[in-house]
Design a protein that fits this description.
Blueprint: H1 12-29, H2 33-39, H3 44-52, H4 70-83, H5 90-104, H6 107-118, E1 124-127, E2 143-147, E3 150-161, E4 168-174, E5 184-190, E6 196-201, E7 212-223, E8 227-228, H7 234-270, E9 272-273, E10 276-277, H8 282-310, H9 316-340, H10 352-359, H11 369-377
Parallel strand pairs: 1-4
Antiparallel strand pairs: 2-3, 3-7, 4-5, 5-8, 6-7, 9-10
Length: about 375
């Protein structure tokens, strides 16, 4: 595994923050995550505890967050990958939802919602995907019609991370349906608003502890003050912020590879077959050597993208590249690591099987592989 002290992208305050995150995870997350997987949800009190420890909204200034930057966010994402705590929706809440509010919200909106999000008292989600639209945000059918001082929202969303726990949802909707992508707006809906309903918790093949659900909007009336930014500017806002979402996925994938590479090296050195350790077979050593070479190459690229993003220089096409490469390599190598574990790889005891299953969504959410290739292709 990459020596964290040798990575120049992190400062001393990032290293100290990692120590605090690890202490919290080892005490409050790792011992209970298996039960949360069985339950299909992470308890809200875990969010409250994380808020009290300053682990939410890490890259936003006080009082909206803990006053850090993307380096602090990356530390927490990496620790989620290190521990296999795939049920935690903290990155979606802190690094996607909260930054939208901070970037495009009014002072009143930021004061109203962000301190509660930082404290874990209000869990955030963003409702983009619809049953018939997938990654095509231009084709969303959820509408928000102006009625005096309110918007009336109608529609349905699916595959919403933090959907069951969510107390605040940024809804991607059409305020001018005839304008296509130029008629998209972002409107905030709070839990408990009449007409807003959470559907069933969706059964997935991975991320078992993550509460992913459907959301329904039936004549949901919200004040015009809940509009985020300007009307009909939502698509532009989404395109501007998606680079960070894609980097979040890549950061997690790279750490997952490194963690399970080391676990696989350790396992093959101990496991014996035909009178010798599995590691002593040339095929095993060559597979692991190739994996290390590929993981090291990816690490350099991911850390360079992190460095660029810390100075707001990460471009959409480069973010698409790092997500595409990271998730493809994660899926490929975890499959090989599982194979080297043999039958035990298919058991939950060694974690690699769960990580392999969890990793598959990386090539879909945050924009599918095909969308990433389309973004990259436009630069050719």
């Amino acid at each position: 595994m990459q020596d964290l002290t040798q990575r120049s992208v992190f400062r001393e305050d990032h290293v100290q923050f990692r120590d605090a995150v690890r202490h919290f995870f080892d005490k409050e997350i790792v011992p209970f995550h298996a039960q949360w997987e069985r339950d299909g949800i992470v308890p809200k009190d875990v969010w409250r505890k994380a808020g009290r420890e300053g682990l939410l909204n890490t890259m936003l200034p006080e009082p909206y967050g803990s006053g850090g930057d993307f380096g602090h966010a990356a530390v927490l994402i990496e620790e989620i990958a290190r521990t296999g705590a795939s049920g935690l929706g903290f990155p979606l809440h802190s690094d996607i939802v909260a930054p939208y509010i901070h970037a495009y919200g009014s002072t009143a909106q930021k004061d109203r919602w962000l301190p509660k999000m930082a404290a874990g008292e209000m869990i955030g989600a963003i409702a983009m995907t619809e049953p018939g639209a997938g990654s095509d945000l231009k084709s969303v059918r959820t509408t928000a019609k102006r009625d005096g001082d309110h918007y009336v929202i109608n529609g349905a969303k699916t595959f919403i991370t933090n959907g069951i726990n969510a107390e605040l949802v940024i809804v991607v909707c059409k305020t001018a349906p005839d304008l296509g992508s130029k008629g998209v707006s972002l409107i905030i809906v709070e839990d408990g608003t009449p007409g807003f309903a959470k559907g069933r918790k969706l059964e997935k093949i991975g991320l078992m502890a993550q509460d992913t659900s459907e959301l329904f909007f039936d004549n949901v009336r919200v004040p015009v003050d809940n509009l985020l930014g300007e009307e009909n500017m939502g698509f532009k806002y989404l395109m501007h912020e998606l680079a960070q979402e894609r980097l979040v996925v890549a950061v997690r994938a790279a750490m997952s590879i490194e963690v399970f590479l080391q676990k696989t090296v350790d396992y093959t050195r101990e496991r014996k077959a035909f009178g010798q350790t599995v590691f002593e077979f040339q095929n095993t050593r060559f597979k692991l050597a190739e994996a290390k070479a590929q993981a090291t190459m990816l690490r350099v690229f991911v850390d360079d993208c992190m460095r660029l993003h810390l100075t707001r220089e990460l471009t959409p096409d480069r973010a698409a590249m790092v997500k595409l490469n990271a998730t493809a390599l994660q899926n490929k190598l975890l499959d090989e690591f599982l194979q080297l574990h043999g039958g035990y790889g298919y058991m939950t005891e060694y974690q690699v099987g769960r990580a392999w299953t969890d990793a598959r969504i990386g090539r879909i959410y945050g924009g599918s592989d095909e969308i990433m290739k389309e973004i990259i292709a436009r630069t050719l």
